[in-house]
Amino acid sequence: MSHERVAYAYAKSLMELAKERGQVEEVYQDFVHLAQMSDSNRDLKLVMRNPIISSEKKLNILQALYAKRGATEATMKFYEIICRKGRENVLPEMAKAFVKLYNIENSIQVAELTTTFPIDEKLRKEFKAVISRIAEAKEVQLVEKVNPELIGGYILKVNDKQLDESLSGQLKKLKSQIIQNQYVKQF
After folding, report:
1. The pTM is what?
2. Portion of the chain with pLDDT greater than 70, in percent
């Protein structure tokens, strides 16, 4: 079974457990923290995927990471089960899958906006309103990135769809059209 499917199955069962205990928000915060740590710390991902390091040591690492911050009992028990089953290599994917499930449950749409410059509050509100209307979401979380190589315009990614309204994207399309349209002499 692929890592994504395994991660989704575990995340779904944890979501159900968190709902039963009334701790969805707390568990969500724990997994946002884990997702951020695994994204920002390559060593953590490597340790969790390393088959030489024992599951017990990996559990100790997870417990140490949450020692200062704290975590719900459900989260820590979940980590124990995952490590006992030898699935700690999929934990970063589980964290991301849980966050996605939480967003779906709460009608939150995450979109990625790449521009050539930081946008102001007015543009941010306009993008959020359009995305909210299209995705029929109560809330929109906009992940903003700046890429000066776009030359101008923006790239908007929502789920698996991408709208490329950048100048560099338009130039690539034009180049592709020029290459495909061979000049044919007509007499």
Report:
1. 0.76
2. 96
- The length of the chain is 187
* Phi-psi map region of 186: left, alpha, beta (phi>0 left; psi -120 to 50 alpha): beta
Instruction: Return the structure tokens found at 19.
Output: 């709902």
First to last CA, the chain: 61
Cα angle for residues 60, 62, 67 (degrees, 5° grid): 90
Binned at pLDDT 50, 70 and 90, residue 187 comes out as low
Residue-wise pLDDT tens digits, 134-152: 888 889 999 999 998 888 8
Smallest CA-to-CA distance from 17 within 81, 61, 65 is with 81
Six-digit token string for 11:
């995340």
DSSP string, 125-143: HHHHHHHHHHHT-SEEEEE
**What type of residue sits at position 111?**
A
